[in-house]
Amino acid sequence: MTDALNARALWEVIAERLRQSILDGRLQAGDRLIETDLAEEFGTSRGPVREAFRELAREGLIVELPRRGTVVSTLTEHDLSEVYAVREALDTAAARIVIEAAGDDDIRSLELHLDALDADPPQGGSYLDLAVHDLAFHRALVALSGNRRMAAISEQMLTQTMLLMRTAARYNPTLRTTMRPEVHRAIVAALLARDEAAARLAIETHYRYAEDRLFPAQA
Description:
- The structure is a single chain.
- By secondary structure, the chain is mainly α.
- It has two domains: about 1-70, Arc Repressor Mutant, subunit A; about 75-219, Four Helix Bundle (Hemerythrin (Met), subunit A), CATH 1.20.120.
- The chain has helices at about 1-25, 35-40, 45-60, 75-100, 105-110, 110-120, 125-145, 150-170, 180-190, 195-215, and strands at about 30-35, 60-65, 70.
- Strands 1-3-2 form a three-stranded antiparallel sheet.
- β2 (about 60-65) and β3 (about 70) form a beta hairpin.
- The relative contact order is 0.12.
- The mean pLDDT is about 85.
């Protein structure tokens, strides 16, 4: 039993390190991941690496391609539409619960993420350094619903969103300068007003705006 637990802990460590390397750009779309090389790097057999691959594939971060092996996913505008459709549905469902059950102070706590998002990037940083606060806002919104299954699905979609943002930022340097902070604050205002219709509209407006910003050439 102890060996099984240790083996599971090892694949989780490998998955987390690979996940972070993908999300921070050290591993980029199309880069190959070779089991034997990673097993040697982590000082283990190929089994834990294979398990880590399964988890990252489930999250949509890597994919196995014929004749190429396992590579970092290249997410497209179609992927963006699918991910944002799921996220919009989750946010809308969460907003309904939050309006009914959350206190004003809990709702106002969402603004902390927006204050951080509205700030200038750290010295030497970029839009992507601030994007984590965007994702944190949506993560916190779903968390306020108290629904753990919704939160788990949301986390998977947020991970893919970060990869999408990194892909988009490579081709669209105006992402930061075209940001409209009010798109998030309209959601908070609707939640505080206990206005479900306004919250639904604000969330829908936010996602259409976000899609247009990330892939303007295809919009």
